[in-house]
Amino acid sequence: MKLLLIITGACLILSFIGDRRKTALGLKKGAMMFLKILPTILTVIIVVSILLYLVPEQKIAGWFGEESGFDGYMAAALVGSISLIQGFIAFPMAGVLVQSGVSYPVIAIFITTLLMVGIMTMPVEARYFGWRMALIRNSLAFVFALVVGVFMGFLWNLF
Amino acid sequence: MRFIKKHGVNIGIIVAFSLFAGYSVYTDYLPGLEILKGNVRTFITELISMLPLMFILIGLFDVWLPKEKVQKHIGAGSGIKGSLLVALLAFMQAGPLYAAFPVAYTLWKKGCSRFNIFIYLGAFSTLKIPMLMFEIGFLGVKFSLLRIVLTMPAVIAIAFIMDRYYAKKSFEIKSLQ
Questions:
Q1: Per residue in B71-83, is it b (16+ CB within 10 Å) or e — as a string?
Q2: Most buried among A60, A116, B7, B58, using CB within 10 Å?
Q3: ipTM for the complex?
Q4: In which domain, by residue range, is B41 found?
């Protein structure tokens, strides 16, 4: 938090020294983007919080938590591959899930498959590149997402 | 007005929840208080302090390094420099993966190499600078850094495997029109 404050302050001062008008334009752009996305973020937090209240935490931790082992990894990979969720929604959601006991490697797999594998959008991909390429790319991405998760599991406790 | 129309459902949910929250606090309604005490409070306080800062950075980045500038230099770029530029271009864009396909087509028509097309798709799907600020805000610097450090080799490996696979086959990107 402090780091972010320092970085933002430094960038802002540098930018202001460099070009006042550009800085003003950048701030305006940032503010517009922020206002546009704010209602969506608030809604996600509200809905996920209510859902988490209704579904007991032990259950979620059982599906995706530390003890779920490889099944948790696979479940996260499948959910990530099938879902079509925007990052602006997925990251707040992942943040809430971490708070309720889902492990970071599982979140990494969910995020990576969400970003790289698109089963629902494969027909679109195939129209540009052909089915063969779409299938190969998505399968490779799926496998590598699991690898990323496994490495994340090894490395997480080292740092 | 357009703002309200576009976010009608969201605003409805937010207003309804605010009323529910107010009611819960006023009457000590336990389930309501529990929801409020948990994630909602942590996240709203974090949001209010963190998000404006992130969006200041996103806005500044956007004015100082517009993606049109990078795109101009890609052309028939090959080799490591071309790959880096293609990846940089991908990092600067926004949107879901299928928004990358038309751009990949344009790059292909401009003479971008097959390997760099795969790098572009991989880079586009794993890291976007505006989204990165967001990711760090919700999941922390450690998570984002580890994820990126681990995913970049995967992107290169996938591009390499696919490039080798197509070495003796014809490769073509079609436009939808």
A1: beebeebeeeebb
A2: A116
A3: 0.76
A4: 2-51
